[in-house]
Amino acid sequence: MYDVIIIGGGAAAMSAAIYAARRQMKTLMIAKDLGGQMMWASVIENYPGYKSITASELIEKFTEQVRELGVEIKISEVKEIKKLADENFAVATASEKFSAKTVIVAIGAAHRQLGVPGEKELAGRGVAYCANCDGPLFRDKTVAVVGGGNSALDAAGLLAKIAKKVYLIHQFDTFQAFEHLEKKIREAANIEIILQSKVEEIIGEKKVTSIKIRNLADDSSREISLDGIFVEIGFEVKTDLVANLVKINERKEIIVNEKYETSLPGMFAAGDCTNGPFKQIVISAGNGSIAALSAYNYIQLKEGNIKKITK
Fold first, then answer.
1. The domain 127-231: what is its CATH number?
2. What percent of the chain has pLDDT over 70?
3. Are 101 and 266 in contact (CB under 8 A)?
4. Are 93 and 74 contacting, i.e. CB atoms less than 8 angstroms apart?
């Protein structure tokens, strides 16, 4: 019986594991891979303590700390979670079953991808999904942003302050963003807006060199030379695993309170899979630490070791 099983391998999950282990909780972390969304970044320049660190280095440092604290890690995919009659949890992968007093769900969210040739091959080599993370790497260069919502226009506005030129490519003829954002984008001298167009291919060998786009109005095609492309078409939160256990919102995010408790006692959630407004590595790490401390307090209260939840 584990005190806590943490599902996920990103910043929220690893931070939760660190804080749980420091509370002497018997901890198991089950993840399909280690790193989560950090793997999509190339260089990270907004994590406290590091002016600049590669994603692989930061993942390695997280993992090393988790292992040194004695956290058990299994690389696998959780297939089922059940709340048992004794208020504990049963967690199953395809080949193993585990039991725990609490569960922390930190399965993250995945950036929606374009699904075009070259995207997967050039990820981290010009293909990026976070302007806040990777924008500074493209100073005085030419980039494209794909998308038409608030996140895409935010990214284009940020990159316009860094890059030499920004192409904003959207498949429809109008944006789905706040009016003030659109006004700001249209007034920027170094942003070229390309509407009713789709990216069909990302070109490059060792790094991105150009993209091919198709105009949906007249079916014409063109190639644009650039140094990077930022895909800002939203996130996919895959919470089917717990959809029948906890409350989720219309975006399929797990609804949590300030203690990162879900609607199911004993189950906590942290990071990009929750209904928090911001999706950043440092924020996910903070979420994970709160979830772990809340899980610890939940066990202590349940077992009568404390009379009230402590801070």
1. 3.50.50.60
2. 97
3. yes
4. yes
Pairing, β 165-169 against β 191-194: parallel
Segments of the chain assigned to CATH 3.50.50.60:
2-111+235-302, 127-231
Q: What is the DSSP string of 178-234?
A: -HHHHHHHHH-TTEEEE-SEEEEEEEESSSEEEEEEEETTT--EEEEE-SEEEE-S-
The CA-atom distances, in angstroms, between 28 and each of 25, 62, 101 are: 9, 15, 12
- Residue 62 CB neighbours (<10 A): 24
Is residue 307 predicted with pLDDT exceeding 90? no
pLDDT above 60 for 309: no
- Architecture per CATH, domain 2-111+235-302, reads as 3-Layer(bba) Sandwich (3.50)
Beta carbons of 115 and 124 less than 8 angstroms apart: no
Name the DSSP class of 147: -
Question: What pTM, to 2 d.p., does this model score?
Answer: 0.71
